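During the reporting period the student researcher (J.K.) took over the structure-prediction task from the postdoctoral fellow and processed the backlog of single-chain submissions. One of the processed entries is reproduced below for the supervisory committee.
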Amino acid sequence: MEQQPTKKDPYAALRIKEFNVFLLVRFALVFAWSMQFIVIEWQVYSITKDPLSLGLIGLMEIIPALSMALFAGHIVDQSEKRGLLMKCIIGFSVISFGLFLLTWPLVVGNWSTNAVLYSIYALVFMGGLVRAFIGPTVFSLIALIVPKKLYPNAATWSSSTWQVASVLGPALAGFSISWIGVHWSMCLILAFALIAMLNLLRIPTKPILNPKIGEPVMQSLKEGVKFVFKTKAVLGALTLDMIAVLFGGAIALLPIFAQDILKVGSEGFGVLRAAPAVGAFLTMLITAYIPISKNAGMKLLAAIFGFGVCIIVFGLSSIFWVSVLALFFSGVTDGVSMVIRQTILQLKTPDHMRGRVASVNSMFVGSSNELGAFESGVTAKLMGTVTAVVFGGTMTILTVVTTGLVSPSFRRLDLRKDLEEHEKED
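J.K. obtained the following structure tokens:
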């Protein structure tokens, strides 16, 4: 494990060559995944013109991701991380190839609408199974590449890489749909999956740090869940972010805003979809220079409160540039939230439990993205699109206010002591 950091060097983690390769792998994989989600959203809504169908995309992914999350964490803690991630990328590539075939004009023209739609949902379901393993594997692999004292810095750059890919993936998806169509857009997705696969081969295999290899599954799962629920900082951060993401899932309704409300077409859709990630990425670059460990609890509460306000503004806007700005600033606040949450998890989680804790994280936060998409689709169907988005933002704000009032210990959360302890260990 290479390391040549200086104590307050914002680029400390980037000075580790292996970590740079890891970031390239993560970039390519997240780029491909986020681009694919947008392409499929566009294709499904173009077929159905039904907002509920967008919600069903999220539901089809969350069911397997949520059901398999804890078991996936157990497998990750018992397995060699690089090899497991390679299997996940191969699985994703197979699913992408299936979607490539389902968007082929010959198939679309000869199959019934329901046959194409249900086949897409089936592949999205399979993607949810793969996703259950990817998050915990990536989280665990970071800790095997960088020293403990660089966890906050590594979390910032890893999250920033995620955001860059989330910016470019949706943006390219929107433009590529316009330029080359849905079918050939899937070819680009397969190309980025291949890039991830080839670069992962540059990372050597890693040791398995779990001292309880062969531990019974149920006992292992119980230990992971127990750790999360007894560690108040982890539980508070995950719960708060889960509810905020659940009710702030306006992103799932962007095809409706782009096509029917703002009337900006696929190019505007790409801009809208990328705006939150642009804001989050810029925020994360700043946090590389300005650590957020001091007063982390209050900063997290303020960030999610601001996120709720931005969602309400977006829902009420009928002007394209106002909508873009609202989404941009929702990304700014979400970026702060993501860095704080990842820092809490990296600093508070023992090495041998990272897979299971990351799986619980995916249940709380990762899966709430898809559940939020489903919630948004249902409420849009029942209340109307604009009302559904405003409702979600309002619920997010109420969640923050309630958490701040009932949990003074979380308001006072400070991570500087944890960081100092890890620096002494290294």
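The committee noted the following: Residues 290 and 406 are 29 Å apart (CA to CA).
J.K. will present the remaining backlog at the next meeting.
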